[in-house]
Amino acid sequence: MPAFAPRIHEAPDDLLAAIDWCYEQGWTDGLPVVPPAVDRVKAMLAAEGRPSETVISHHPATGLDLSLHAAAVNAVMAGCLPEYFPVVVAAFEAMDRPEFNFHGSTASTGGSAPLLVVSGLYADEIGMNADVNLFGPGNRANATIGRAVRLILRNVFQMLPGISDKSTQGNPGKYSFCIAERARGNPWPLLCEAQGYPKGASSVTAFAGGGFCNVENHGGNTPEQILGSVADAMANYGCITLGQSVVILAPEHMQIVAGAGWTREKAQAFLFTHAKRSVEGMNGVGKYRDREYDTQHGKDAHALAEQGFVHRGLSPDDILITMGGGDAGGHSCFIPSWSRGRGSIMQHAPVKPIKRS
Amino acid sequence: MQLYSPMSTAPKRKAFRAPALASIDGLRIGILENGKLNAEEMLQEFAALFVERHGCTVHTLASKSNASAPAPANTLVKVAQEVDFLITGLGD
């Protein structure tokens, strides 16, 4: 579908009045935005290099396209610096794949927010936070990249709360849900390496996240104890589905797990094995479905899927695990999928670093 | 100051409504269920009202493998050839 020329509005010259004017247009997430002045948008686009009309994502239900230009406008409004823009672009290139299910994950009552995990050197280059207060406020890159995603979903794809975004409760990540993978002290290969990108490349992984579950364990001293707590969180009756999972291990927990020689693959297998509920238990809370059980235990079932139990996900590969957060504290987290089934599969894409003149 | 619009620059897609049916008496019904808990049951109950009150017949039951994704085009094309109107909706 051909793109039209971008529209320019005359807004008040006074900055505060211009911010109010943006509110009046319905362009915000409830917080003030940076007015998308023409020169700022051009500076953002200069960080990309491709023609501004290039379409990087398409919404299957509304038929609306996301051009680099529209992405840049919203990135300015979110407060992004130009060097953050390649991450925003890569996120939408990842989410554009049909397996991510753009429409469902942005419209559903499930209330998902796209979690972005940025992996590799570029996260450091633009000053992202992978450390203390990982999911909290305080870092411009994390906060504004995540916010740009939300503003694009709202302004470009018209996923408007109460109209096309039907989240029953939503989750706080719908304001911004973006972290960097912690490379410092990480004993496992970074995600970008595990994903097969060449040395020095960075990636963004996008996951339709259904919320945030803190996993506290200050007493466990073995991988089984630490990951047992995580598995229990993953299998709670409120969360257990056939969907995928993201687990961010705190450095303290990672030290215990990897310090005992456990690889990422071994941890994934342990979590898949133990994040399960009995058929009887699932029936007890009214969540058991033959169709889902058969999907998990059919002829293509993973060898670790135990008869008589419903596991979280279909295989250990459905569990993304890495490290993040501050040095102190036994607080990891589990982020459930929005999807109850296989409605959205996490995707990743390479970050194409900023063009430097 | 001059501000760019943050909206999509793509033209709005044109959508057309199907012409209204003059009568539904004796028509063929299709059901498109989305795989959610109780979706098929609810839609069958709904279709039964048309059968009872208007002499309709249920011709096709189609399923979506992903409740939250649009129905595949080939499913819609196939169903459109077999029925006069389609009933769909959420389960849960």
Explain the overall architecture.
The complex is a heterodimer of chains A (357) and B (92). Chain A is an alpha+beta fold and 357 residues long. Chain A has 13 helices and 13 strands. In chain A, the strands form four sheets. Chain A has a four-stranded mixed β-sheet. The longest helix of chain A is centred in the middle third of the chain and has 16 residues, at 140-155. Chain A is globular. The mean pLDDT of chain A is 95. Chain B has helices at residues 39-54, 73-82; strands spanning 2-4, 28-33, 57-63, 85-88. In chain B, helix 1 links the parallel strand 2 (28-33) and strand 3 (57-63). The longest helix of chain B is centred in the middle third of the chain and has 16 residues, at 39-54. Chain B is of the alpha/beta class and 92 residues long. Chain B has a domain at 28-88. Chain B has a three-stranded parallel β-sheet with strand order 3-2-4, sandwiched between helices. The chains are: A alpha+beta (357), B alpha/beta (92). At the A-B interface, strand 1, helix 1, strand 3, helix 3 and helix 5 of A face strand 1 of B. Strand 1 of chain A pairs antiparallel with strand 1 (2-4) of chain B, so a sheet runs across the interface.
- Counted by DSSP, the helix tally of chain A is 13
Give the helix/strand class of chain B: alpha/beta
Return the domain count of chain A. Answer: 1
CA-CA gap between termini of chain A: 32 Å
State which percent range the strand residues of chain B make up: 15-25%
| Main sheet summary of chain B | 3 strands, parallel
Rg of chain B, Å, rounded: 18 Å
Helices and strands of chain A, in order, run as EHHEEHHHEHHEHEEHEHHEHHEEEE
The order of strands across the largest sheet of chain A is 5-4-6-13
Regions with little confidence, pLDDT below 50 for 5+ residues of chain A? none
The secondary-structure element order of chain B is EEHEHE
The average pLDDT value of chain B, as a whole number, equals 88
The unreliable regions of chain B are none
Give the strand tally of chain A: 13
* Large-scale geometry of chain B: elongated
